[in-house]
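Per your request, structure below.
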Protein backbone atom coordinates (compact mmCIF):
# COMPACT_ATOMS: atom_id res chain seq x y z
CA UNK A 1 0.00 0.00 0.00
CA UNK A 2 1.39 3.46 -0.89
CA UNK A 3 2.18 5.85 1.93
CA UNK A 4 -0.54 8.36 2.82
CA UNK A 5 0.55 11.98 2.90
CA UNK A 6 -1.55 15.00 3.86
CA UNK A 7 -2.10 17.30 0.90
CA UNK A 8 -3.58 20.76 0.73
CA UNK A 9 -6.45 20.35 -1.74
CA UNK A 10 -8.07 23.80 -1.41
CA UNK A 11 -7.36 27.21 0.07
CA UNK A 12 -9.50 30.25 0.84
CA UNK A 13 -9.09 33.52 2.65
CA UNK A 14 -10.97 36.45 4.06
CA UNK A 15 -9.85 39.99 4.82
CA UNK A 16 -12.15 42.70 6.20
CA UNK A 17 -13.16 45.62 3.96
CA UNK A 18 -11.77 48.45 6.11
CA UNK A 19 -8.32 49.54 4.91
CA UNK A 20 -6.00 51.20 7.44
CA UNK A 21 -3.35 52.92 5.34
CA UNK A 22 0.04 54.22 6.47
CA UNK A 23 -1.30 57.71 5.80
CA UNK A 24 -4.17 57.16 8.25
CA UNK A 25 -1.64 55.91 10.84
CA UNK A 26 0.31 59.16 10.39
CA UNK A 27 -2.76 60.87 11.91
CA UNK A 28 -2.84 58.46 14.86
CA UNK A 29 0.80 58.14 16.01
CA UNK A 30 4.10 59.91 15.40
CA UNK A 31 5.29 58.11 12.29
CA UNK A 32 5.61 58.53 8.56
CA UNK A 33 4.31 56.42 5.74
CA UNK A 34 7.83 56.33 4.37
CA UNK A 35 9.30 55.00 7.67
CA UNK A 36 6.73 52.23 7.86
CA UNK A 37 7.18 51.18 4.25
CA UNK A 38 10.98 51.20 4.24
CA UNK A 39 11.35 49.51 7.66
CA UNK A 40 8.60 46.87 7.18
CA UNK A 41 7.33 46.78 3.57
CA UNK A 42 3.77 47.50 4.75
CA UNK A 43 1.56 50.03 2.93
CA UNK A 44 -1.82 49.13 4.41
CA UNK A 45 -3.60 46.55 6.54
CA UNK A 46 -7.22 45.43 6.98
CA UNK A 47 -9.20 45.95 10.18
CA UNK A 48 -12.36 44.12 11.26
CA UNK A 49 -14.83 46.82 12.28
CA UNK A 50 -18.13 46.26 14.07
CA UNK A 51 -19.33 45.31 17.51
CA UNK A 52 -19.27 41.72 18.64
CA UNK A 53 -17.12 40.34 15.82
CA UNK A 54 -14.17 38.05 16.49
CA UNK A 55 -11.63 35.87 14.71
CA UNK A 56 -14.33 33.31 13.84
CA UNK A 57 -16.25 35.94 11.87
CA UNK A 58 -13.36 36.05 9.39
CA UNK A 59 -12.68 32.30 9.41
CA UNK A 60 -16.31 31.34 8.78
CA UNK A 61 -16.76 33.12 5.40
CA UNK A 62 -13.41 31.70 4.27
CA UNK A 63 -14.49 28.16 5.22
CA UNK A 64 -17.90 28.60 3.61
CA UNK A 65 -16.30 29.71 0.34
CA UNK A 66 -13.91 26.75 0.46
CA UNK A 67 -16.70 24.22 1.04
CA UNK A 68 -18.77 25.74 -1.75
CA UNK A 69 -15.82 25.76 -4.16
CA UNK A 70 -15.05 22.09 -3.43
CA UNK A 71 -18.71 21.02 -3.34
CA UNK A 72 -18.21 19.56 0.12
CA UNK A 73 -20.88 19.35 2.82
CA UNK A 74 -19.80 20.64 6.26
CA UNK A 75 -20.91 17.24 7.56
CA UNK A 76 -17.92 15.66 5.77
CA UNK A 77 -15.39 17.63 7.81
CA UNK A 78 -13.69 15.51 10.50
CA UNK A 79 -11.67 18.15 12.26
CA UNK A 80 -11.07 21.92 12.43
CA UNK A 81 -7.85 23.26 13.98
CA UNK A 82 -7.61 27.02 14.46
CA UNK A 83 -4.24 28.73 14.86
CA UNK A 84 -4.94 31.99 16.70
CA UNK A 85 -3.81 34.23 19.56
CA UNK A 86 -7.01 36.25 19.38
CA UNK A 87 -9.65 33.57 19.98
CA UNK A 88 -13.28 34.65 20.19
CA UNK A 89 -13.23 33.69 23.88
CA UNK A 90 -10.70 32.25 26.34
CA UNK A 91 -13.08 29.28 26.19
CA UNK A 92 -14.80 27.57 24.49
CA UNK A 93 -12.41 27.35 21.58
CA UNK A 94 -12.90 29.30 18.37
CA UNK A 95 -12.92 25.93 16.63
CA UNK A 96 -15.99 25.01 18.68
CA UNK A 97 -17.77 28.19 17.60
CA UNK A 98 -16.82 27.61 13.96
CA UNK A 99 -17.95 23.96 13.95
CA UNK A 100 -21.36 25.10 15.17
CA UNK A 101 -21.76 28.09 12.85
CA UNK A 102 -20.66 26.32 9.64
CA UNK A 103 -22.69 23.20 10.51
CA UNK A 104 -19.66 20.90 10.85
CA UNK A 105 -21.49 18.83 13.43
CA UNK A 106 -19.44 15.67 12.80
CA UNK A 107 -16.16 17.49 13.38
CA UNK A 108 -14.10 18.05 16.48
CA UNK A 109 -11.26 20.48 16.91
CA UNK A 110 -9.36 22.91 19.03
CA UNK A 111 -7.43 26.18 18.99
CA UNK A 112 -3.66 26.19 18.83
CA UNK A 113 -1.72 29.13 20.24
CA UNK A 114 1.70 29.55 18.67
CA UNK A 115 1.35 33.21 17.68
CA UNK A 116 2.67 33.85 14.16
CA UNK A 117 3.60 30.16 13.88
CA UNK A 118 0.03 29.10 14.72
CA UNK A 119 -0.89 28.11 11.18
CA UNK A 120 2.25 26.07 10.56
CA UNK A 121 1.99 24.28 13.92
CA UNK A 122 -1.71 23.57 13.20
CA UNK A 123 -0.92 22.38 9.68
CA UNK A 124 1.63 19.85 10.91
CA UNK A 125 -0.72 18.75 13.71
CA UNK A 126 -3.62 18.28 11.28
CA UNK A 127 -1.43 16.39 8.84
CA UNK A 128 -0.78 13.69 11.47
CA UNK A 129 -4.49 12.85 11.63
CA UNK A 130 -4.57 12.44 7.84
CA UNK A 131 -1.36 10.39 7.67
CA UNK A 132 -2.56 7.94 10.32
CA UNK A 133 -5.89 7.50 8.53
CA UNK A 134 -7.90 8.84 11.49
CA UNK A 135 -9.32 11.72 9.42
CA UNK A 136 -10.17 12.21 5.76
CA UNK A 137 -10.91 15.95 5.74
CA UNK A 138 -9.22 18.39 8.08
CA UNK A 139 -9.62 22.15 7.93
CA UNK A 140 -6.61 24.11 9.15
CA UNK A 141 -7.36 27.75 9.88
CA UNK A 142 -5.12 30.71 10.68
CA UNK A 143 -7.24 33.60 11.99
CA UNK A 144 -6.34 36.66 13.99
CA UNK A 145 -8.11 39.87 14.86
CA UNK A 146 -4.93 41.63 15.96
CA UNK A 147 -6.77 44.96 16.16
CA UNK A 148 -8.52 43.58 19.28
CA UNK A 149 -5.22 43.54 21.20
CA UNK A 150 -3.55 46.54 19.58
CA UNK A 151 -2.70 49.83 21.30
CA UNK A 152 -3.28 52.42 18.58
CA UNK A 153 -1.12 54.90 20.50
CA UNK A 154 1.95 52.59 20.38
CA UNK A 155 3.78 53.20 17.13
CA UNK A 156 6.11 50.25 17.76
CA UNK A 157 3.28 47.74 17.29
CA UNK A 158 0.19 49.30 15.71
CA UNK A 159 1.88 49.94 12.37
CA UNK A 160 2.67 46.26 11.85
CA UNK A 161 -0.44 44.23 12.56
CA UNK A 162 -3.69 43.65 10.67
CA UNK A 163 -6.72 41.33 10.71
CA UNK A 164 -7.48 38.36 8.45
CA UNK A 165 -8.14 34.65 8.15
CA UNK A 166 -7.10 31.85 5.83
CA UNK A 167 -8.03 28.19 5.63
CA UNK A 168 -6.75 25.10 3.86
CA UNK A 169 -8.33 21.69 3.41
CA UNK A 170 -6.09 18.70 4.10
CA UNK A 171 -6.93 15.37 2.44
CA UNK A 172 -5.05 12.07 2.01
CA UNK A 173 -2.78 11.69 -1.01
CA UNK A 174 -1.05 8.56 -2.28
CA UNK A 175 0.87 10.16 -5.18
CA UNK A 176 3.67 11.48 -2.98
CA UNK A 177 2.22 15.01 -2.96
CA UNK A 178 1.43 17.16 0.07
CA UNK A 179 3.43 17.65 3.24
CA UNK A 180 6.78 15.90 2.95
CA UNK A 181 8.72 17.23 5.93
CA UNK A 182 8.59 19.75 8.75
CA UNK A 183 10.83 21.30 11.40
CA UNK A 184 9.08 23.09 14.27
CA UNK A 185 10.82 24.82 17.15
CA UNK A 186 10.10 26.74 20.35
CA UNK A 187 12.31 28.73 22.70
CA UNK A 188 10.33 29.98 25.69
CA UNK A 189 13.16 32.21 26.83
CA UNK A 190 12.10 34.59 24.07
CA UNK A 191 8.67 35.19 25.61
CA UNK A 192 9.73 38.42 27.30
CA UNK A 193 10.23 40.22 23.99
CA UNK A 194 6.73 39.71 22.56
CA UNK A 195 3.71 38.94 24.69
CA UNK A 196 0.46 40.08 26.27
CA UNK A 197 1.12 40.90 29.91
CA UNK A 198 -2.33 40.40 31.43
CA UNK A 199 -5.54 38.49 30.91
CA UNK A 200 -4.13 35.02 31.57
CA UNK A 201 -4.07 33.11 34.86
CA UNK A 202 -0.79 34.73 35.96
CA UNK A 203 -2.30 38.20 35.84
CA UNK A 204 -6.06 38.15 35.47
CA UNK A 205 -7.88 41.19 34.15
CA UNK A 206 -8.37 44.01 36.67
CA UNK A 207 -8.92 47.76 36.56
CA UNK A 208 -5.17 48.12 37.07
CA UNK A 209 -4.25 45.88 34.11
CA UNK A 210 -6.64 47.79 31.87
CA UNK A 211 -5.31 51.16 33.03
CA UNK A 212 -1.73 49.96 32.44
CA UNK A 213 -2.65 48.82 28.89
CA UNK A 214 -1.51 45.30 29.69
CA UNK A 215 -4.09 43.61 27.48
CA UNK A 216 -2.38 44.92 24.37
CA UNK A 217 0.55 43.40 22.48
CA UNK A 218 3.91 44.28 23.98
CA UNK A 219 6.86 43.99 21.59
CA UNK A 220 10.53 44.82 21.93
CA UNK A 221 11.05 44.86 18.17
CA UNK A 222 14.84 44.72 17.77
CA UNK A 223 15.53 41.42 19.60
CA UNK A 224 12.55 39.81 17.88
CA UNK A 225 13.80 41.05 14.53
CA UNK A 226 17.31 39.72 15.12
CA UNK A 227 16.10 36.26 16.17
CA UNK A 228 13.53 36.15 13.34
CA UNK A 229 16.08 36.95 10.64
CA UNK A 230 18.35 34.14 11.79
CA UNK A 231 15.63 31.67 12.84
CA UNK A 232 13.44 31.77 9.76
CA UNK A 233 16.39 31.68 7.36
CA UNK A 234 18.17 28.86 9.20
CA UNK A 235 15.16 26.57 9.53
CA UNK A 236 14.30 27.09 5.85
CA UNK A 237 17.86 26.26 4.80
CA UNK A 238 17.86 23.19 7.07
CA UNK A 239 14.67 21.75 5.62
CA UNK A 240 15.88 22.38 2.07
CA UNK A 241 19.21 20.74 2.78
CA UNK A 242 17.86 17.62 4.44
CA UNK A 243 15.46 17.13 1.50
CA UNK A 244 18.29 17.71 -1.02
CA UNK A 245 16.54 20.75 -2.47
CA UNK A 246 18.73 23.23 -4.30
CA UNK A 247 17.44 26.72 -5.02
CA UNK A 248 16.45 25.70 -8.57
CA UNK A 249 14.30 22.86 -7.15
CA UNK A 250 12.22 25.25 -5.02
CA UNK A 251 9.27 26.75 -6.88
CA UNK A 252 8.02 29.00 -4.07
CA UNK A 253 8.77 30.28 -0.60
CA UNK A 254 5.62 31.10 1.40
CA UNK A 255 7.03 33.05 4.34
CA UNK A 256 5.32 34.53 7.38
CA UNK A 257 4.73 38.21 6.62
CA UNK A 258 6.12 40.11 9.63
CA UNK A 259 8.68 42.35 8.01
CA UNK A 260 9.87 42.38 4.39
CA UNK A 261 13.48 42.55 5.58
CA UNK A 262 13.05 39.21 7.41
CA UNK A 263 11.48 37.69 4.28
CA UNK A 264 14.33 38.98 2.10
CA UNK A 265 16.93 37.45 4.43
CA UNK A 266 15.22 34.05 4.21
CA UNK A 267 14.92 34.22 0.42
CA UNK A 268 18.57 35.21 0.16
CA UNK A 269 19.67 32.30 2.37
CA UNK A 270 17.76 29.91 0.06
CA UNK A 271 19.17 31.62 -3.04
CA UNK A 272 15.68 32.41 -4.31
CA UNK A 273 14.86 35.21 -6.75
CA UNK A 274 12.10 37.62 -5.61
CA UNK A 275 9.69 36.13 -8.21
CA UNK A 276 9.64 32.90 -6.18
CA UNK A 277 8.73 34.59 -2.92
CA UNK A 278 5.09 35.05 -1.97
CA UNK A 279 4.54 38.56 -0.69
CA UNK A 280 1.39 40.31 0.44
CA UNK A 281 2.66 42.16 3.52
CA UNK A 282 2.24 45.43 1.61
CA UNK A 283 -1.57 45.08 1.60
CA UNK A 284 -2.39 43.07 4.75
CA UNK A 285 0.50 43.76 7.17
CA UNK A 286 1.21 41.07 9.75
CA UNK A 287 -1.99 39.08 10.29
CA UNK A 288 -0.17 36.70 12.68
CA UNK A 289 -1.54 33.15 12.15
CA UNK A 290 -3.26 34.14 8.90
CA UNK A 291 -0.25 35.30 6.88
CA UNK A 292 0.76 31.98 5.30
CA UNK A 293 -2.72 30.77 4.26
CA UNK A 294 -3.44 34.28 2.93
CA UNK A 295 -0.26 33.99 0.81
CA UNK A 296 -1.35 30.60 -0.54
CA UNK A 297 -4.78 32.10 -1.27
CA UNK A 298 -3.33 35.08 -3.14
CA UNK A 299 -0.90 32.94 -5.16
CA UNK A 300 -3.09 29.84 -5.65
CA UNK A 301 -3.64 30.41 -9.39
CA UNK A 302 0.13 30.44 -10.01
CA UNK A 303 0.82 27.19 -8.16
CA UNK A 304 1.26 24.00 -10.18
CA UNK A 305 0.81 20.37 -9.19
CA UNK A 306 4.18 19.04 -8.04
CA UNK A 307 5.67 22.46 -7.16
CA UNK A 308 8.12 22.25 -4.27
CA UNK A 309 7.07 24.88 -1.73
CA UNK A 310 8.70 25.88 1.54
CA UNK A 311 6.50 27.48 4.17
CA UNK A 312 8.45 29.31 6.87
CA UNK A 313 7.56 31.18 10.02
CA UNK A 314 8.84 32.97 13.12
CA UNK A 315 6.74 34.34 15.94
CA UNK A 316 6.22 35.17 19.59
CA UNK A 317 7.26 32.61 22.13
CA UNK A 318 9.64 32.25 20.37
CA UNK A 319 8.07 29.80 17.93
CA UNK A 320 9.39 29.06 14.48
CA UNK A 321 9.62 26.44 11.78
CA UNK A 322 9.41 25.36 8.18
CA UNK A 323 7.33 22.91 6.16
CA UNK A 324 8.32 21.36 2.85
CA UNK A 325 5.36 20.37 0.68
CA UNK A 326 4.63 19.38 -2.88
CA UNK A 327 1.60 21.29 -4.17
CA UNK A 328 -1.16 18.81 -5.04
CA UNK A 329 -3.34 20.46 -7.69
CA UNK A 330 -3.67 22.88 -10.57
CA UNK A 331 -6.44 25.43 -10.09
O1 LIG B 1 5.42 38.42 13.58
C1 LIG B 1 5.82 38.23 14.89
C2 LIG B 1 7.24 38.53 15.09
N1 LIG B 1 7.47 39.95 14.98
C3 LIG B 1 8.41 40.38 14.16
O2 LIG B 1 9.01 39.62 13.45
C4 LIG B 1 8.72 41.85 14.20
C5 LIG B 1 10.21 42.04 14.25
N2 LIG B 1 10.61 43.42 14.46
C6 LIG B 1 10.50 44.33 13.48
O3 LIG B 1 9.97 44.08 12.42
C7 LIG B 1 11.12 45.68 13.72
O4 LIG B 1 11.91 45.61 14.89
C8 LIG B 1 10.10 46.85 13.84
C9 LIG B 1 9.42 47.10 12.51
C10 LIG B 1 9.08 46.53 14.92
C11 LIG B 1 10.82 48.12 14.25
O5 LIG B 1 11.81 48.43 13.29
P1 LIG B 1 13.32 48.66 13.73
O6 LIG B 1 14.06 49.01 12.54
O7 LIG B 1 13.76 47.47 14.52
O8 LIG B 1 13.19 49.93 14.66
P2 LIG B 1 13.70 50.12 16.16
O9 LIG B 1 12.73 49.53 17.10
O10 LIG B 1 15.14 49.73 16.27
O11 LIG B 1 13.65 51.68 16.24
C12 LIG B 1 14.51 52.52 15.43
C13 LIG B 1 14.05 53.94 15.58
C14 LIG B 1 13.83 54.37 17.01
O12 LIG B 1 14.18 55.72 17.13
P3 LIG B 1 15.59 56.15 17.74
O13 LIG B 1 15.63 55.58 19.12
O14 LIG B 1 16.62 55.55 16.84
O15 LIG B 1 15.56 57.65 17.70
C15 LIG B 1 12.34 54.22 17.20
O16 LIG B 1 11.85 55.06 18.21
O17 LIG B 1 12.78 54.09 14.93
C16 LIG B 1 11.83 54.64 15.86
N3 LIG B 1 10.53 54.09 15.54
C17 LIG B 1 9.69 54.67 14.68
N4 LIG B 1 9.80 55.78 13.94
C18 LIG B 1 8.76 56.10 13.14
C19 LIG B 1 9.95 52.97 16.02
N5 LIG B 1 8.73 52.81 15.48
C20 LIG B 1 8.55 53.85 14.64
C21 LIG B 1 7.49 54.24 13.81
N6 LIG B 1 7.63 55.37 13.07
N7 LIG B 1 6.35 53.54 13.70
Amino acid sequence: MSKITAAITAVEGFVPDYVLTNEKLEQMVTTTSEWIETRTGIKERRILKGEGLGASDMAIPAIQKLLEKKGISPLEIDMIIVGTVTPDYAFPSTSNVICDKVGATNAWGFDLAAACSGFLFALVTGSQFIETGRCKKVLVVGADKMSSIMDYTDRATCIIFGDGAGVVLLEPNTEGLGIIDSILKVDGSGRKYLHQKAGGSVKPASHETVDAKEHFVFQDGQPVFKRAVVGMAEVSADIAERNHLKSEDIAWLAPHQANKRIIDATAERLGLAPEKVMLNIQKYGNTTAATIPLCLWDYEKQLKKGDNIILATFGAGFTWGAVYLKWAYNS
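The chain has a mean pLDDT of 97.

Regards,
D.
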